[in-house]
Amino acid sequence: MSIQGTCTPKFAEVRTEFERNFAERGEVGASVHVTLDGEPVVDLWGGVADPATGRLWSEETIVHVWSCTKAATALCAHILASRGELDLNAPVVKYWPEYGANGKDATLVRHVLAHQAGLPAVTTPLPDGAFYDWDLITSTLAAQPPLWEPGTRHGYHGLTFGFLVGEIVRRVTGLSLGRFFEKEVSGPLGLDFWMGLPEDLEPHVAHTIPVDPTQPGILLPSLFVTALTRPDSVPGLMLLNNGGYMAPGESDSRQAHAAEMGAIGGISNARGLAGVYRPLALGGAYNGVRLVEESQLPQMSNVAVAGLDEVVLVPTRFALGFQKATDNTHLPPNDREGLLISEEAFGHNGMGGSLGFADPGARVSFGYAMNRQGPGLGVNERGQSLVDAVYRALGHRRTGGGTWFR
Fold first, then answer.
1. Domains of the chain, with CATH numbers?
2. How far lies 57's CA from each of 60, 115, 373, in Å?
3. Of 299, 294, 295, 324, which Cα lies nearest the Cα of 309?
């Protein structure tokens, strides 16, 4: 497989692992980007963007990055907090009064960011296309009783996080989430990263190649098994009551790409993912663009919640809106995917394996995006092999099967 782009000699092993992903690990089309001290040291892409037509993955190719979008959404909230316009310890109702219905009046903004709000799903049946109607979803969430007492437990708000945080951003700024992100982040930094993709960019999109669960050797995570066997469970509600968004192929429809969905709807590539995190690896600013004050970074990187996740049914660790290193390699094979980065790092992966993160201690940002999904929710061997190669190039070591350290 022909690999394009550049890679400095120090990070040559990243290129080697990227090539191995195609040769040995089933990669179809992908890109990887790494910055060190703000400078690109890896910028690679290769493979096929569209197997049906043979269209190759190019420098301009973008792809659905799924839950990597959550980090972009969380960043919007932290930008406002850094400016003193949003108090993360205030009740949500200070900014969104209607949210207080049915026992949610004491829910704090930080509970929403840390997946503690108790609203990973709604019980009201959603009509087809519901996720493309912002007002419908946010009003439904505002009226929904929490599925557990907010602040007492955490559970991954896989599909609702973007509407919850995004509505807070909208109430504070008067701008939709996608427009605020473009105005404050992707525009000033010149990033290919959209929540609400312009129609003229559709030809550059590599559509998702989903997992075929009937293939031999495919092991579905506990979340999916529970959802399919117990539709009335919290995982079942999350994955089945979403207005058809999770139906095969729907997420790559034009309507889905055009919608501003801050949990799962982002369209980007490795360069865009690493670009979001580059200022965060450098004290909050890059090339004259300050996203947050350096004093805000501990709120973005310190662990806020950890332990068994009420939704994905395996241990997870979150800062306020960002994933932290999680070693699940000791679990049964279907639930082993996690996120093996340094304890100083913070970021977010996307369903099937995409990933972006910042490591302020190493002054590194990382992005990986691909079109063929793996079966799990975490970072699979393709992305993890690239992360591991980056840390080895930096001279870091890893605990037995676990996280990286200097």
1. 3-53+206-250+266-283+297-405 (3.40.710.10)
2. 8, 35, 16
3. 324
